[in-house]
Amino acid sequence: MKHTINKEEKVFDHFLKIYKAQVTQDSFDGKKEITTTRLALDRGNAIAVLLYEKDTDSFLFIHQYRYPSSRRDRGWIVEIPAGAIDNNETAKNAAIREVKEEIGYEIESLEFIVEYFPSPGMLSEQISIFYGEVTSSQKTTKGGGATSENEDIELIKIPRSDIKQKLKDRYFNNSISIISLQWYLLNKTP
Predict the structure, then answer these.
(1) Could you tell me which residues are beta bridge partners of residue 64?
(2) Which is it for strands 17-26 and 3-13: parallel, antiparallel or unpaired?
């Protein structure tokens, strides 16, 4: 099957970019081509990091205000550290930078979990999720987020023994946390 982007234009250009395109795609039955107009929200790619703190037997999360989710009465979200990949930066380097910026930990090594499209019907963004283990001695700075971005981030530690119940209780409401924790339960627990 094939597709063609016939015409594409940027219709909004700020922190987020919106593209409008006329696309032609093959139909599944192979009898015709479908031509239509589609929109794509582009903000670049991102990373997220599930961190387990060995000496406290806890996972490290961030708690911060999110305007988009506040539109659904859920302004403050608990999630794993995450952020955008800057120009000329690898996903792994972005993960190391974001963890230090948001929660103040130095990471020695990371394990790749998955790269996925969180909302492919609207976003071109791909998120790379990593897993890392740290100790409390690796917290070398305050964290709290980038002051240039007006971030106000709180570190939250959740005991590993509470994770299954928190998932069952729907405590987490964002894909990066749910995917990474389910991966952990499938791959890292005895």
Answers:
(1) 77
(2) antiparallel
Measured distance CA(88)–CA(154) in Å, rounded: 29
Query: What value does the mean pLDDT take over residues 83-98?
Result: 96
Q: What is the DSSP letter of 86?
A: P
Task: Write out the DSSP string of 19-52.
Answer: EEEEEEEE-TTSS-EEEEEEEEEE---EEEEEEE
Both tokens of 119, joined, read 């909302």
Q: How far apart are CA 118 and CA 137, in angstroms?
A: 33
| Structure tokens that stand for 59 in this block | 């996972």
Q: Could you give the 3-state DSSP secondary structure of residue 73? A: coil
Q: Is 155 helix (H, G, I), strand (E, B) or coil?
A: strand
Confidence at 147, pLDDT banded by 50, 70, 90: confident
Query: Locate tokens 């979990």: which residue?
Result: 113
Q: Global pTM?
A: 0.93
Which residues in 134-154 are b (16+ Cβ under 10 Å) and which e?
beeebbeeebbbeeeeebebe
Segment 42-54, tens digit of pLDDT: 999 999 999 999 9
Q: Is residue 91 within 8 Å of 172, Cβ to Cβ? A: no
Dihedral angle over CA of 170, 172, 176, 181, nearest 10: -70
The answer to whether residues 77 and 174 touch, using CB atoms and an 8 Å cutoff, is: yes
Is the CB of residue 79 less than 8 Å from the CB of residue 177? yes
Give the H/E segment covering residue 94. helix 91-103
